[in-house]
Amino acid sequence: MSSCKPSPTPVDTKAKLSSTSGNPYHDPTEYRSLAGALQYLTFTRPDISYVVQQVCLFMHDPKTHHMSALKRIIRYVRGTIDFGLHLYPSSIDKLISYTDADWAGCPDTRRSTSGYCVYLGDNLISWSVKRQPTLSRSSAEAEYRVAVYLSDNPVQHQRTKHIEMDIHFVREKVACGQVRVLHIPSRFQIADIFTKGLPLQLFDDFRDSLNIGSPPVSTTGVY
Asked: What SUPFAM superfamilies has UniProt attached to this entry (predicted)?
């Protein structure tokens, strides 16, 4: 696919891969090899972490539409072949984390995909995409709004013991001023790039926020 037409994004906004539809791909070994190679690439290309995680879920029994999704990732990488994760000089006086979940996004199990990214100063230092092991019975929007609310409201905390440990830890940190928990509007929720396909403009904005791009132009020897 060295001469393939590049794709502007690694996944479209409506792609929800399923294991119950489509014909088996004729060469599962090829599929697994390509998916495995893309997993290594995510070490420096977090912008493809979501869709690579999705295609890797089907390595045991890949279908033709799974291969189509995988090829789109390769087409995207082909068009951004010189991109990588960049680190810049920055103050380290703040640690900021974004987290979100695509509620019931799996069409087969209705499990959610959760993702997060962590910045030290202005630099991305950690990120993750993971299929949640259990079902969520309420929307991610509601869950995170509740988490924000409970962090500042200890009375309501007694009614939600199923999330006791996490909320207790966060609430203590909020109470002593070490942590601030805020709801982030979708337009600025960088973690969305780890949980779903995004429109081109939003994807580009979030990719830039991850400090992913071409290497800076060298000025060595230029006068």
From this structure: DNA/RNA polymerases
183 contact partners, CB below 8 Å, separation of at least 6: 144, 145, 148
User: According to the model, what pLDDT value does residue 214 have?
Assistant: 93
Could you tell me the residue ranges of all domains in the chain? 95-213
Q: Looking at residue 93, what is its pLDDT?
A: 82
Please state, in angstroms and rounded to a whole number, the distance separating the CA atoms of residues 168 and 14: 37
Kindly tell me the sign of the dihedral angle through the C-alpha atoms of 23, 28, 31, 36: positive
For 154, residues 6+ apart whose C-beta sits below 8 A from its C-beta are 171
Provide the 10 A C-beta neighbour count for residue 172: 12
* pLDDT score of 146: 46
- Spatial CA neighbour of 10 closest among 63, 60, 79: 79
Q: Two tokens at 36?
A: 């495995």
At 61, is the secondary structure helix, strand, or coil? coil
pLDDT score at 189: 94
As assigned by CATH, the class of the 95-213 domain is alpha beta
Amino acid at 61: D
Residue pair 25/64 in contact by the 8 Å Cβ criterion: yes
